[in-house]
Amino acid sequence: MKAKFISLPENNPNFRYYLGKKGKNNLLVVALNPSTANVHKHDGTSDNIEKITAVNGFDGWLLFNLSPQRTQYPYLLGLEPKIKMLEQNRHFLNQFLKDNDWSIGSVWLAWGNNINLRHYLKEEALHVLSKIRDLNLNIYCIKLTGTGHPYHPSKQSVNRYVGPIDKIEFHPFEIDSYIKKLKQN
Predict the structure, then answer these.
(1) Cβ count within 10 A of residue 103
(2) The CATH number of 6-184 is which of 1.20.120, 3.40.1000, 3.40.960, 3.40.470?
C-alpha cells in the first residue's frame, strides 16, 4: 500500500517525531503527543488538522509534538521525560526549521491544557516557542482554552468547544505573553 503521508518513523507504535503531507502552501503544526496516525491513515486529530488547515488556505502540513511518545491518552505519558527521545524530537524540529525546504511561513500551536500534565511538556513548549519566535513566522491557534493554552484539535474538543470544522479560522497567537506565562507557572 502506498503511503498517504510522510512520517518519521513510518509506523512505530511507541513514538513518532513527525507526520505530514507536503503541499504548495505548508503549515507547521505543534501539538502535544502523537496518537495512532501513521503513513497510511489519519486518527481523529490528524484528520481535523488536515481539514482545518485546508479551510485556512493551506494544502500541506507537518505535525510535530512536544513529546514524541505515542498514546491516545495524554495522562499516560511517562511521568519523567525520556531524554533521548526528547533530544531526537528537538533535533528533527530544529533541523526542519533550519532547512525549511517546505517553505513554511506559519505555525499553528495546538497542545491544549494537557501541557500541565507533565513538567517536561512546558519545557519542550518553551524550546519550540523560542525557536519559532526567532524565525519571525506567523503564529496561530484556533482558540485559547480557559486557562490560556492553544486549543488541541481533537475531534471531541473541536466539536464541543470550537465549532464546525469547516468554519474554524486561525487567530493570531501572542507568543511573548504566553512564554512569560509558561515561565511563571
Answers:
(1) 10
(2) 3.40.470
Residues across the chain: 185
Q: How confident is the model at residue 145 (pLDDT cuts 50, 70, 90)?
A: very high
Which residue ranges make up each domain of the chain? 6-184
CA distance 77 to 93: 20
pTM value? 0.95
C-alpha grid cell, residue 117:
500534565
Q: Which residue, among 105, 103, 112, 100, has the nearest Cα to 75 in the 3D structure?
A: 112
Residue type (1 letter), 47: D
CB 22 within 8 A of CB 6: yes
Note whether 62 and 20 are within 8 A (CB): yes
How far apart CA 166 and CA 82 sit, in angstroms, is 37
Whether the per-residue pLDDT at 1 is higher than 90: the answer is: no
Closest CA to 68 of 30, 105, 109, 119: 30
* Spatial CA neighbour of 153 closest among 133, 174, 173, 168: 168
| Residues 22 and 53 sit within 8 Å (Cβ to Cβ) | no
Place of cell 518513523: 9
Give residue 167's pLDDT: 92
